[in-house]
């Protein structure tokens, strides 16, 4: 079986990251253990050469960076996103029937719905409470046991089920929470959430639940799969694989060069938020770093422009591997394989931001690191997806390319990737962070 020093850490990270807030909290823990210092967005930053720092926005997006010992500042930037498709619980979500209590949901992102049926579902997300002092404060919630299920309709009652039946997210996707009877007295969803919070945060002296952002997730842990353990199966590989590999690379780098990781939220719903790639998070941080570089000499805008043009962004988001049952869904010459190394994603209409200059840079980095590299281009008769790369390039002006690890079943409740590929990507991104020149 293929052995990797990072696989166990990856599995642990995936299992502890049911939502973007939990993924961000896990990354904070890892960065702080590696010596990164927390910066508040609302305060003036006092930075020093060679320093390592991080800041967050909305609790679900993170920027971590290191400064070189000497000027001028150029940044090796890695971009990823923390969110994944899921079923979000509606604000007034209690659905009381004659026999069962269900929770109404709305679909977050482009979820593949069929695999959600008959799964053991937990509940996780962020809750805002009122403390005894009257302040509002966030709490993370993760009920990591089988709390609910979305039962399929038996084939006997739907003989056409295997002929491509449509799924109605409003009427058919509400998870069943418990069997109700006359003794049950649940008046509100807040009452249930307060009960779960008090179970999970024993001794937390909050007064009441005020608001929440919660959703369902599959509690089955990620695992190595295959006779030789050559596959990795789990939830939210898109895009926590990229978050993990970028984090490992930044921590493992030699600290000599300027390097930065931006992990945005809300990519799955278009990135249009304060913590998404269309927001100002990365631009605000780059502005602070331009101030640091300008120092007492001024010329802030000139420093910012020059710093951005000296920097490069690798946007990391997973790619579609050639499926063994549907090989015709790929261009035969551009069909990435699991365990074939990172995939450079190219699109002539700039749905991916890669061009020949940025693509050549990454190919050269992979060559130096001894990492295989693949290329993905969509079939000419199929639409192409997109990711944070073009959005970030547009809002910042950073020279950018899009890459990712190959996977099957993207946006399913459980996805599959190659067990060797995370190490390949960590090696390539670490070499990128260590590279002394970017042209």
Q: Which helices and strands occur, and which strands form pairs?
A:
Layout: H1 7-15, H2 20-33, E1 37-38, E2 52-57, E3 61-66, E4 75-81, E5 86-96, E6 100-108, E7 121-131, E8 136-148, E9 176-179, H3 189-200, E10 206-218, E11 223-225, E12 231-234, H4 237-252, E13 258-264, H5 281-294, H6 300-310, E14 312-316, E15 319-320, E16 343-345, H7 356-369, E17 374-376, H8 388-396, E18 400-404, E19 406-408, E20 415-418, H9 421-434
Parallel strand pairs: 1-2, 4-13, 4-14, 14-18, 15-19, 16-17
Antiparallel strand pairs: 2-3, 3-13, 5-6, 5-10, 6-9, 7-8, 7-10, 11-12, 12-20, 16-18, 19-20
Helix pairs in contact: 2-4, 4-9, 5-6, 7-9
| Shape assignment | globular
* Gyration radius over CA: 23 Å
CATH superfamily of the largest domain: Zn peptidases
Q: What order do the strands of the largest sheet run in, or round the barrel if closed?
A: 1-2-3-13-4-14-18-16-17
Instruction: Quote the CATH topology of the largest domain.
Output: Aminopeptidase
Mean pLDDT rating: 94
| CATH C-level label of the largest domain | Alpha Beta
Strand count, sense and barrel status of the largest sheet are: 9 strands, mixed
Helix amount: 25-40%
Query: Secondary-structure element order, as H and E?
Result: HHEEEEEEEEEHEEEHEHHEEEHEHEEEH
Termini separation: 39 Å
Counting DSSP E segments of at least 2 residues, the number of strands comes to 20
- Discrete helix count: 9
Strand content: 25-35%
Uncertain residue segments: none
Structural class: alpha/beta
Provide the domain count: 2
Give the name of the CATH architecture of the largest domain: 3-Layer(aba) Sandwich
Cofactor: Zn(2+)
Pfam family, one: Peptidase_M18
Keywords: Aminopeptidase, Hydrolase, Metal-binding, Metalloprotease, Protease, Zinc
Family: Belongs to the peptidase M18 family.
